[in-house]
Amino acid sequence: MPELRIVLLGLSITSSWGNGHATNFRGLVRSLAGRGHDVLFLERDVPWYAEHRDLPRPPWGRTELYGSVEELAERWHEELREAELLVVGSYVPEGVAVAELVLERARGVVAFYDLDTPVTLAALERAECEYLTPELAGRFDLYLSFTGGPILRRLEQRFGVRRARAFHCFVDPGAYAPVEVEERYAVGYLGTYGADRQPALERLLLAPARTSPELAFAVAGPQYPAEIEWPANVERIEHLPPPAHPEFYGSQRFTLNVTRADMRRWGFSPSVRLFEAAACGVPVISDSWEGLHRFFVPGREILVEDTLSRLEALSPDEARAIGDRARRRVLGEHTADHRADELEAHVAALAGAPAG
């Protein structure tokens, strides 16, 4: 399709600390810029990301920081007005004001990119969403949803969203691939602490660790409360930047995928970590949720629940074959290029539609 001027306003592309948005934005910008599109990513400069920037200068497109909505309006007025596609992400600081500004200034297609759809929907229904309102949700030309399935119809019927479309997470195969390293852990987990995820982490990793003291386990990610009692054979890693993820996955016999409560409730919500782990060829043990079979065939491309039985029953060759099949599935359906294809198709279908 013709080259587009694209402006993305997202939570963060420069820092992956405590969020899964960064790797999604990095892969998407890389793919879009590689196709010749003029991509500008605008990120709010906040202290907690400034202190943990693992990619301060992304090499694809342009990335610029802004300090306030007022600065955004004044400094980037022309770019907001002239872009053929503007995308506002979930959890952007002062997201309501940012969305109102973009919808007011834009002449092109305006999309909301929700990387947290079930959480957003729950917050909207409680009238407690900090980055979106029901009125704003209905003004976007396109609603790109991290979650597919029934939630799309709910958004359209309950909040007047015009075009809710599944836009699942994905992997950048240039950044996530198998790494040959020595096995260090029987099971590992990579994810920021979440109170609603902790019971599943306890069931699928910590409890097996306590009953198998001869095996090594690992949990990597920030914000875990100090009062958690970790078994002696569970290594805690506070933060791993994305370039270190493949080696971490490669050092595990199995890796664990745990889903937030709101995502489990609606289903059809594969996380970016799930696709990244699969792209690294490591067999994944996941908690169970509706729609999982749409992305991986249970027992053949992914394992569901019951960590200890997997450790005891599967030979290394059988486990490796599961990981290999999952990798092929991800590379065939869930890469940054696949999502860029989808985004271009949506924009082409909306060509000429009024913004807001």
What is the CATH first-level class name of the largest domain? Alpha Beta
Number of beta strands: 13
Number of domains: 2
- Helix proportion of residues, in percent? 25-40%
- Summing up helix and strand content along with how strands pair, one would put the structural category as alpha/beta
| CA gyration radius, whole angstroms | 20 Å
The spatial strand order of the largest sheet comes to 3-2-1-4-5-6-7
- Terminal CA distance reads 23 Å
Question: Runs with pLDDT <50, length 5+?
Answer: none
- Taking all residues together, what is the mean pLDDT? 95
Q: Could you name the CATH topology of the largest domain?
A: Rossmann fold
The largest β sheet comes out as: 7 strands, parallel
Helix count from the secondary structure assignment: 15
Name the CATH superfamily classification of the largest domain.
Answer: Glycogen Phosphorylase B
Strand content: 15-25%
Second-tier CATH architecture of the largest domain: 3-Layer(aba) Sandwich
Shape: globular
> Secondary-structure element sequence?
EHEHEHHEHEHHEHEEHEEHEHHEEHHH
